Amino acid sequence: MRIARYVADGGDPGFGIVELAADAGDHPDTIAAINGDPLAGPVKYTGERHSLDDVRLVSPVIPRSKVVAIGKNYAAHAAEFHSTVPSEPLVFLKPNTSVIGPGEPIVYPPETADLHFEGELAIVIGRICRRVPADRAAEVIFGYTIANDVTCRDLQAKDRQWSRAKGYDSFCPLGPWISTHLSVAEAGNLRLTTTLNGEPRQESDTSLMVYPIPRLIEFITSFTTLLPGDVILTGTPHGVGPMLPGDSVTVSIDGLGSLTNPVVAED
Ligand code: MG
Question: Residue 216 sits in which domain range?
Fold first, then answer.
């Protein structure tokens, strides 16, 4: 199942189930409205239906609590910064106010001169959980989506910690929807690509994570409680690079879709 949040006809955002023509072939890409929050209970269709082209998707996650992110989780990415992989997962937090949806602008702040994209697989948590053993991680995962861990590379070096460099408003694009049908093993074996203005920049595979999904959930929940709707960014592969106002960045993961955002200068 692919769960999106969307706005139709200028109304309030609601949740819907995305049905792609590629799946069945006898209909256009559509979105079927559902009642309430799918993280809070069973999905119930309202009967309302739209062409996917006629709605505006927003972040598939309502960012109520936190975004937990992982640094240096691909060896080739650590190497491009002349670094090595950490001896245990390297965790940081992005504020929930950094979350935006597909198509919404990444705002280039005046304080940076080196704004980077980082395409990443994102895990959406479905249950309140603490001290989850790796072999039970699947029980707390609601689904998967795509993230861009936008980073001011210069401020990251200057500040010596990452709260500002990765925490600006708009620095956590998520989407286009949450895919709930993948197993942990399937999510850990997906091709990931990032393009800038259509030019390939990152080409990798989630199978190359240093610490795989179950270990990340075990490690994160060893110190903090995860809540439904919390998001884990699993780290970026090699090939990160700068963006400028006027650019368009797209992160694609096989089976999960594509997440495109324009970059704009701050007013
Ligand atoms: Mg990252």
Answer: 67-265
